[in-house]
Design brief:
single chain, Immunoglobulin-like, five-stranded mixed β-sheet, 8 strands, Ig-like_dom_sf, Ig-like_fold, Ig_sub, Immunoglobulin domain-containing protein
Length: 98
């Protein structure tokens, strides 16, 4: 997930998260794996975010979430998940200040 690591935003800022399928643990994805951007999900505080809020980029296998005018309610941990797997693939903590 990018950006990686803890991020700090001011209320009213724009937040953009990108969740991309990449190789894990040094092992490239197999050509037999038929992943699509729709296989990805982003969760905020372990709650799924509606897929209607995302933009999909199939060639890059990327799911993008943009939140305009961030509020204090947007503060917290965002995680990227592949398919319906509960395993966290990537995480980013966003701290929002008023």
């Amino acid at each position: 997930m990018s950006p990686a690591g803890d991020q700090y935003l001011l209320v009213g800022s724009t937040l953009q998260l990108n969740c991309t399928i990449v190789q894990t643990h040094g092992v490239a994805l197999s050509s037999n794996d038929s992943y699509k951007a729709l296989d990805l999900s982003i969760r905020h505080r372990n709650r799924s975010i509606s897929h209607a809020q995302f933009e999909y980029y199939e060639p890059e296998l990327t799911l993008a979430l943009t939140i305009h005018h961030v509020t204090l309610a947007d503060d917290g941990m965002y995680t990227c998940h592949l398919r319906n797997n509960n395993e966290i693939k990537y995480l980013t903590l966003f701290n929002v200040a008023g």
